[in-house]
Amino acid sequence: MNSPTNWTQITPAADIPMREGRSVKMGSLNIALFNLGDRFLAVENRCPHGHGPLADGIVGGHGLATTVTCPLHNWRICLDSGEVVKPQAQSSPCVRTYPAKVENGIVMIDMSKKLSTEQAA
Amino acid sequence: MKERLVVIGNGMAGVACVEQILKHTQEFDITIFGDETHTNYNRIMLSSVLAGEKEYDDIVLNGIDWYQKHRINTKLGVRIADIDSAVRTVTDADGNVTAYDKLIFATGSSAFIPPMAGVDKSGVFVFRTYDDTRQLLELSGPGIKAVVIGGGLLGLEAARGLQVQGCDVTVVHLADTLMERQLDSIGGGYLRSKMEAMGIRVLCGRSTQALLGGTHVEKVLFKDGEEIDANLVVIAAGIRPNSALGKQAGVTVNRGIVVNDQMETSDPNIFAVGECTEHNGQLFGLVAPLFEQGKVLAATITGNRGPVFAGASPASKLKIMGVEVFSAGNFDCSRPGVEAIRYEDSSLGIYKKLVLKDGRLEGVILVGDASDDHRYMDWLRTNKDLSGQRRHLLAPPPAEDKGQDVASIPEGDTICGCLGVTKGDIIHAIHADGVCTMAQLKDKTRASTGCGSCTSLCKSLLRAVAPEFEEDKAKVLCDCVPFPQDKIREMIQSQRLKSVQDVLDIYGNGRGCEICKPAISYLVDVVWCGDHEEDRSARFINDRVHANIQKDGTFSVVPRMRGGVTTPAELRKIAEVAEKYNVPLVKVTGSQRLDLLGVKKEDLPKMWEDLGMPSGQAYAKGLRMVKTCVGDEFCRFGTQSALSTGIELERRLENLYTPHKTKLAVVGCPRNCAEATVKDIGLIGQDGSWQVVVGGAAGKGVRKADLLITVETTELALESAELFFQYYRENGHYLERSYDFVERLGMEKVRRETVYAVDEARQGLLDRLRKSKERSSDAWLERYNPRATQFVQIEPMETPVNEFAN
Ligand SMILES: Cc1cc2nc3c(=O)[nH]c(=O)nc-3n(C[C@H](O)[C@H](O)[C@H](O)COP(=O)(O)OP(=O)(O)OC[C@H]3O[C@@H](n4cnc5c(N)ncnc54)[C@H](O)[C@@H]3O)c2cc1C
Ligand code: HEM
Ligand code: SF4
Ligand code: FES
Predict the structure, then answer these.
(1) Are residues B23 and B68 in the same domain?
(2) B656 and B763 belong to one structural domain
(3) Which chain B residues contact residue A8 at CB under 8 A?
(4) Pocket of ligand 1 contains residue B46 by CB under 6 Å
């Protein structure tokens, strides 16, 4: 099924300082939004290791990946793909990612992915 | 009798040639004359010395022990002034005569000084020798206006070095674009903007007429009448071969001393090697071909005549950190049958150009990203037919990982361009000689002892092939900023870098990670005594919200109770707050204070307001607390006032960052009830004096603190603690506890540089501590002026359509 997009206005871009993350509660869902300067990225705010709050992590970059490091035990998560990049070769599930963009100074997230998976479940 | 071999010139080419000769035979009685007073060092690395990245010891290639081991008569600081080739003698400037059977000229070249008035003024330099570099280092610094004449490789490296030393630098260049001999005008333009982005002023198309001023230079005057201020001038306008002695000896000299393919001059007993030579009309300015020459000459002079020197089209690489520029071959594409392939990304500042003829590479220019240079060099060297891979010329199919990248390099490929070491040579050294560190590899193969740009490739090879690969000692902070912490501290200081992002942009990969960002945050804070640009995104979450994150993402709140002393009113308030916010756990900590655990981030500022107490910084890599015993105010054994002294000490040091957490204690007598002997700093009261101890630990390991000093007054005890505290702040590595710190430095050094230091040094430490203290404040006051949404739980402006449909 080719699901339609579902862009949802979240918060003024100025609320999220450069290279920091903030968490946003969307009903039952907790999303971590990051300001990378030239773009915003959104992932589920829950580390696959011990459920640490990724929004509170330090943003960095390694090779091609832009990452956040979980504040609890330093797992590194790729913000574009949601994959765990450290510790290496972790077979743990990815963190879910959400498309994000800024329009008229407002950060927006496309929630269609979330809806379609939930509806499927 | 052994044949007498005399070498004039103790530089890179001459000594490398002697090394090669020694491989062939030990049958020469060798004398080397050098008019510099140093043994052979890596001249290429002078740029890095000027930029503060390396010191003299790092660039020595042959120490005096090498000369002794090979029984070489070494005459340092001796200049040869005359040669009589008829009787085969050389005469030094003092008139001493030395006879030779064979003579090698290895006199190198000198800086070319363009004709202009005023070059004899003080403050005018060239950049050729270690002594030049040392003088430049002495004179440069903040407030100095430096002008570099010449915008080629050497001039730009000099400019960057001076700027790192704090000078205000202008590069003046005759041509319209920088490095016009190595780059086309587009590449030169990119290079220019990179230099300018670093804060170096660039003036192209300027011809210098004169250097003005009294005895010392004050201004540079251009032909068009324009003047600029200058109190330091470096002339880097090119080099000229030192060939005058050749003329005296009667050998053929054009611009350089003329040599044939076997490195022979027109006199059968005289040879030449290095930048002083001219071969087929070509002069030299880079080391790679000179080492080739040395190999050929070594064969010729030892009676193994055969190998020939074929000339070379060497590659140039700019050695400025953060500015990648590489150029090789012929990039002129106005010739018939020549085509150019270009790639350009102006916002990343990347420009690449390949020049092809008949499907083969003729020239290459890389600006902004020179990571693939060895590929192109090999295509050039082997004249490889590239028609089959036209699609992948500029962007090779991505390799899976670094290891495979190394594996995919063919055995015959050159890894170290300067010294001509191939991958095969390195693999051989690893297997045959058991090489497993970079230092051993340098020793065995000389790889990476030239310009050093192949170091990371050599390391990857070692890592992939050597079973027992070991990283070299000086531990770098992390891959993002690959320098030891002490270097980074120096760079922050000399470059006046005030923010973490500046350090990452200039010396790192621009992005950083959770390892380097907090470390650099610490370093910029301490170097500038708090007068830096605080970037919270580079701090760990605890230091963004001034509380300790717990395993469930909640936080703990520990208010400051100086000296572990509280009041009924304070306790009442704490109790009320704990109830009001439903704090799940109240705990007396190991540090004589109370911890309220399980607090939500958004509740933090309100709780601090209700408590009205300062932050205890129980989360920070900084001063935690000063534990005390009741001391002579109550205790019947007490000899000193532990309570008031401890509280005063905590007031003086609170709110400051340290390399790692720092825990203090003050006790009133040697019974030591608050365990001062296992603290980072402890004050132990005695009858009529205080013992100040440092470097204690009672955590995973236990270490009894060392005595720093015994003093009579309480004020002196406090001051001694302050001295050590600031010294540790300034010299400790981030995440190095005081007990590792004192072991690394040794207590003797610590004492010598703190309590027993000269007055000025002690005063300096105290002044910087006071300055930092003035700029610091209770972190919990941020509740009144939060940084953006520091403590806020963001609520979405709208809910997605259908979100709660089921
Ligand atoms: C700052 C700087 C950066 C450089 N960067 C690079 C680079 O990145 N890549 C690269 O390939 N090359 C670089 N070079 C060039 C490289 O250093 C030279 O090509 C190389 O050192 C030349 O070696 P040489 O032995 O011919 O001359 P030198 O190393 O100059 O040695 C000649 C020695 O002979 C001595 N001498 C001269 N005349 C007499 C005399 N009459 N009696 C006694 N002694 C005498 C001189 O004092 C000198 O010590 C750089 C040079 C400088 C200065
Ligand atoms: C993330 C891990 C850690 C947490 C959350 C933690 C937490 C704490 C807290 C909250 C206190 C009281 C602090 C105060 O009142 O200021 C404390 C004290 C202490 N911690 Fe830790 N700590 C940690 C790691 C360590 C480690 C690694 C060591 C030793 C190597 C250590 C040794 C101590 C000691 C010795 C005290 C008591 C100090 C004293 O009574 O003088 N802690 N810790
Ligand atoms: S250390 Fe000495 S002064 Fe302090 S409480 Fe113990 S016995 Fe008393
Ligand atoms: S919860 Fe993220 S690393 Fe452990």
Answers:
(1) yes
(2) yes
(3) 796, 798-801
(4) yes
Nearest CA to ligand 1 atom 29: B11
Establish if B511 touches chain A: CB-CB under 8 angstroms.
Answer: yes
pLDDT at B418: 80
Whether the model pTM is above 0.80: no
List, for residues B371-424, the tens digit of each pLDDT value.
788 888 888 888 888 887 877 787 765 544 444 567 777 888 888 888 888 888
pLDDT number for residue B660: 96
Least confident of A24-28, B118-122, B320-324: B320-324
Cβ burial of A9 (10 Å; 0-12, 13-18, 19+) is: middle
With respect to residue B380, please indicate whether it lies within any of the assigned structural domains.
no
B369: CA distance to ligand 1 center in Å? 28
Does residue B456 sit at the A interface (CB-CB below 8 Å)?
no
Residue B569 counted as domain residue: yes
Q: How many CB atoms lie within 10 A of CB B650?
A: 24
3-state secondary structure B46-107: HHHHHCCCCCHHHHECCCHHHHHHCCCEEEECCCEEEEECCCCEEEECCCCEEECCEEEECC
Atom of ligand 1 nearest to the CA of B287: 11
State the DSSP string of B158-219. Answer: HHHHHHHTT-EEEEE-SSSSTTTTTS-HHHHHHHHHHHHHTT-EEE-S--EEEEEESSBEEE
Q: Closest Cα partner for B654 from B763, B537, B785, B559?
A: B559
How far does Cα B237 stand from its chain's mean position? 27
Q: Would you say B185 and B334 are in contact if contact means Cβ atoms under 8 Å apart?
A: no
Domain extent for B559: 540-619
CATH of residue B275: 3.50.50.60
What is the average per-residue pLDDT within B285-303?
93
Q: Considering only A83-87, A94-98, B253-257, B595-599, which range has the smallest mean pLDDT?
A: A83-87
Distance B618 CA to ligand 2 centre (A): 8
Picking from B539, B570, B602, the residue at the C-terminal end of a domain is B539
Residues B249 and B233 in one domain: no
Q: Is B579 within a domain? A: yes
Q: Map tokens 């009894």 to a residue.
A: B704
pLDDT of residue A90: 56
Do B231 and B283 belong together in one domain?
Answer: no
Specify the pLDDT at position B474: 61
Q: What is the pLDDT of residues B687-711, one digit of tens each?
A: 999 999 999 999 888 999 999 999 9
Overall domain count for chain B: 5
Mean pLDDT of B772-784: 95
Quick check: is B453 in a domain? no
HSE-CB for B787 with a 13 A CA cutoff: 16
Residues B14 and B154 in one domain: no
Band (B467; pLDDT cuts 50, 70, 90): confident
Mean pLDDT, range B610-631, rounded to an integer: 96
Are B634 and B774 within one domain? Answer: yes
Inform me whether the pLDDT recorded for A92 exceeds 70.
Answer: no
Specify the CATH number for the domain of residue B587. 3.90.480.10
**Which ipTM was obtained for this model?**
0.90
Model confidence at B200, pLDDT cuts 50, 70, 90, reads very high
Report which bound ligand comes closest to the CA of B674.
Answer: 3
User: CA of A50: how far to CAs of A46, A67, A76, A79, in Å?
Assistant: 8, 17, 13, 18
- Domains along chain A? 7-120 (2.102.10.10)
For residue B8, the cross-strand partners are: B33, B105
Pick from B41, B50, B54, B45: nearest CA to B484 = B54
Domain boundary among B222, B237, B252: B237
Closest ligand by atom to A71 CA:
4
Whether the bond between A87 and the residue before it is cis, its omega within 30 degrees of 0, is yes
Whether residue A60 contacts residue B511, with contact meaning beta carbons closer than 8 Å, is answered with yes
Residues B166 and B277 in one domain: no
Same domain? For B153 and B224 the reply is yes
